[in-house]
Fold:
Amino acid sequence: MLLSEFYCIFAIRQESESPLFKVQNCSIMSSRNYCLILAGGTGQRLWPLSRSAKPKQFLDFFGTGRTLLQQTYDRVSKFIEHDNIYISTNVQYLPLVYEQLPGVDDMHILEEPLRRGTLASVVWGMAMITKHDPQARVLVTPSDQLILQEDDYQSNMLEGLDFVGENGCLMVMGVKASRPETGYGYIQKDDEANESGICRVKAFSEKPSHAFAEMFVKDGGFLWNTGLQVFRADVLLDTVCRIVPEYQLGIPRLMADAESDDARLVPEVFQMLPNLSLAVGILERADNVYVKECSFGWADLGTWTSIHDDCPADANGNVIMDSRAYLYDCKDNVVRIPKGRTAVVKGLSDYVIAEEGDILMICPREEASAMRRMHTDTKFM
Structure:
C-alpha cells in the first residue's frame, strides 16, 4: 500500500484534550519546517501595472531592488531552510521564476500547465514535500504581500508551525480588522484563545458587502484573513480526501508521480482535479481549523484601494510608489509612474494615476469594475 493511500484511508487521530493549551517550542530552522510559495496568479486587479505577462509578484513595487516574489523568498528563508522551500507557478511564468530566483533547485519549482485553483496547487506541493517528510509542517504563503515587521512575522509563523506539528490541525493566520474592507476575507474567531492568540475558527466570510464588513469590525470578533496557512502535510492531505471525494484517487496518483524522475512536471491527473481554492474547498468546510491572531504589519497588495489604505502616504494621504511626481491640491491618490517619467497632477482626489508600458490609466480608486472593462478594451487596441 502506498503511503499516500494510507493517509487517505485513515484519519489523523485527534487528541482528546484541547490543543489550545499544549506547550509549544518554537525552533528556528527546524528540518521539519517547509514552505510553499504560491506565485501563479495573474494580479489583474492592479492593472495596468500588473498584467498577465508579468503579474504583480514579479514586480518591484516600491523601488527596493527586489520583487514581491524575491522579498517573499528572502523573508521565509530566514527561518526555513532553502532546501525546504518550494515555489508553485503557472508554466507561463517559469522563465520569470528562474530569472528572479536563480539559486533555487529546478525540482523545487512546481509548474502548473493550467490554473486549477489554489487547492490543486497546494495538494501538488504537499505530494512533493511528503516524499521527504510525511509529517512536514508547512507554511503556505502568497507571493504578493507587504510585511512590515519581519521579526514578528517570523515568530508568529514559527508558533503556528509548532502548534500544527504537535496538534495535527489546520491553521490560518489572521490580523485585526481595522476598517470595513470589502476586498478582504474575514475569519470569525472563537472566544477561547490560548496565550499565543490561537483559537478555533467559527466561520469564514469571503469579501462581504460593506454593511457586513462594518458589522464585523464593530463586533471585534473577526479578523482579516491574510491568506497565510500552516498545517502538517499529512493532515492536509487526509482532510482533502475526506472533504473532496474527487481527490481520493487523485492524491495517490500525485504522490506516486512525485517519486518519478520528472516529478517537477505536473502529471495529467492535475488537469482533472476540481477547480477550487484552498479556502473554499477545505478551510471553510473542515472541522479542525484554528486561527492565530497576528500582528506583523500586513497588507494585501491586491487592489489600488488596499495599496492606498495600507502603504505609507504623504501629509495629504497621497501614496507615491517609487515615482517622480509633483502633486498640487491633491489628496488620497495613488501614483505609480515608470522611471524616467514625471507626473504633474493638480486638483485630483481619490484617483489612481498609473502608467506601465503603452498604457496610462487615470481612474477613481473605487471603480474597480471600470478598470476591468478598461483591461478588456485595451486587449483589442
